[in-house]
Amino acid sequence: GIRDSIMIAHSFHQHPSFGPAGGMHGATYTCDVEFISEKLAPTVNWVIDIGLASDLLSEVLQRYNMQNLDEVFPNGEFTTTEFMARQIYLDLVEKLRSCVNHGEGGNGDGDGEGGTG
């Protein structure tokens, strides 16, 4: 697996369910990602190139790092940890699919069938 982190600011728009956290505050999120596959990539015996995986996660997290999530998500979303975990997952899946479609699947033989599924 891989790990990266981001620092963000956000609020829960003064919603009473969040108590004092309803106002603007900062948070640091540590993002751990595990990649699972039913088989290893031929020749290299890995699920995904760890360098590629790290680069993709870094690219995904750049959108959020040092940002006010109230501005990144301007429609009043509650950017809870669970919301952000899902959003980062969806963003990473999109990046992985793009890599596979462009032959960068990370399996070491250039056929675009990396260990992403």
Strand order of the largest sheet: 2-1-3
Number of helices: 3
Series of secondary-structure elements, N-terminal to C-terminal: EEHEHH
Rg, nearest Å:
17 Å
Q: Can you summarize the main beta sheet?
A: 3 strands, mixed
Range of strand content: 15-25%
Average pLDDT value? 90
Looking at how many chains there are and whether they match, the oligomeric state comes to single chain
Helix fraction by DSSP (H/I, runs of at least 4): 25-40%
How many individual β-strands? 3
Low-confidence stretches: 109-117
Shape: elongated
What is the terminal-to-terminal distance? 15 Å
Q: Which structural class do you get from the secondary structure elements?
A: alpha+beta
Please provide a written account of the structure.
It is a single chain. By secondary structure, this protein is α+β, with helices and mostly antiparallel strands. It is built from 3 helices and 3 strands; from the N terminus they run E-E-H-E-H-H. It has helices at residues 50-62, 69-72, 81-101, and strands at residues 2-10, 25-33, 67-68. The longest helix has 21 residues, at 81-101. Mean pLDDT is 90; it is low at 109-117.
